[in-house]
Amino acid sequence: MNNNNTALKIPNNLQRWRLLLGEAAQSQLGNLSGEAMAADAALEWLYGRDPDRAARGERGATLDPSQLTIPDWVNTIHTLFPQEVIERLERDAVERFGIVEVVTNLDVLSRIEPSESLLRAVLHTKHLMNPEVLAAARKIVAAVVQKIMEKLAREVRQSFSGTRDRRRPSLRPVASNFDFKRTLRANLHRWHPEHKKLYIETPLFMSRSKRHTEQWDIILLIDQSGSMVDSVIHSAVMAACLWQLPGMRTHLIAFDTEFVNLTADVSDPVELLMKVQLGGGTDIAKAMRYAQSLIHNPRRSIVVLVSDFYEGGSPHELVRLSKSMVQSGCTVLGLAALDSAAKPNYDRDMAQQLVNVGAHIGAMTPGELAAWLAEKVQQ
């Protein structure tokens, strides 16, 4: 796999404009050659499918038959373009032009570098895959999830591990709780001037304040409409991280116009994601009603609704249920986005109605959600 350490070399600005405008500008800007010609062919293979671009003054399509197969195209863009451009091209191929073969062809999947962009494409098209391709796609899902998991697990552990309490020493020799200052002061008399070393007889450690002492229920309600795919991915990984924490009982429910309880798979985000069915309508109230049925101790329960709040069911019922949960003592958090970018696109009117009845509304990265949850459970 090419790591794109060397970028595509375009000789001058005229050539750059020629790449942008397409073959129609060739008479004014000159011919392309070498890598620039290969790049132009790759761009034309994809964006030549847009029937409206001529009206916008963009690259013009030709009627010449394409010389690139899908594997050829994938290999070409991975050779010529930097990673951020590759991800954009692959995303456009699947999501904009519907070239699902990019992620449903076994030969292609074996060439594409695992990335979040590819993971999104796999989740959108996995229902089109035969068993052999699906097995290859699962490996891609696992590779991307592992990268997200490694980062997020550290953030979750840091948020929930408790703060070190220097006022209370501990007899447990845990490296992360090592009290350097007290150890130094207690052993200063063991300094050996000739050897220029401080000999420590007894290392000292601090205790940690406990973040929670009672069982908490965290109920993640995940809107699985197509626009929420990034949030679905990070919700699955977040649920797996929370599942590993003592004193936390995590539920995960995915919904559209119906809901499915995926809690049995919450410890395996790969299996969970492979069961998610993206698309369809949205009945948030129905999912909230089910979440309410899972609450046994409202004051030790947090419902995290990850949705764009565009309610296809009953807006009145959604607001009523949210108000009922809040009044019972349950914490309700609505997230318009849960991913590394946390860029929300949501129904602001519905969000305001939920705020008016006591819900918290925001957009968070997974790390920010972990810190928010930790703050709530230690109160």
UniProtKB/TrEMBL annotation:
InterPro entries: LolB, Uncharacterised_CoxE, VWF_A, vWFA_dom_sf. It holds the Pfam family VWA_CoxE. The keyword Repeat does not apply. SUPFAM superfamilies: vWA-like. Residues 215-374 form the VWFA domain. Keywords: Plasmid. This is VWFA domain-containing protein.
